[in-house]
Fold Putative pterin-4-alpha-carbinolamine dehydratase.
Amino acid sequence: MSLLANSACKPCHKNAPPVNASERQAYLEQLPEWRIVEHDGIMKLSRSFSFRDFANALAFTQRVGEIAEQAGHHPVITTEWGKTTVVWWTHQINGLHLNDFILAARTDEVAE
Ligand SMILES: C[C@H](O)[C@H](O)[C@H]1CNC2=NC(N)=NC(=O)C2=N1
């Protein structure tokens, strides 16, 4: 398990600091397939995963749902034929928190 995936999520509240630019860079190095996207001025972490059919994309979606429920932190998941897109951000701070990078790393692990 990667260092990030194995880190514990920190309790998050609306005054929690978002990750700064240098932290963002350092975490992204551990998540080479993830991209930062900006929707309505909110930074989010996004990755699409390919599968051989809808059933496999859906099974992965369920595994991501389980890690989200365990952590109490929830992504937007879009499931299509052969493809699942996962987007993480922290609603409470309208941006990226360390927890989003931890959950992205755990997402990578349940894709394997
Ligand atoms: C009350 C509850 O803990 C919060 O609403 C949690 C639930 N899941 C969450 N998920 C995400 N991605 N961001 C949040 O800020 C968030 N908040």
Strands lie at 35-39, 42-50, 76-80, 83-88. Residues 54-71 form the longest helix (18 residues).
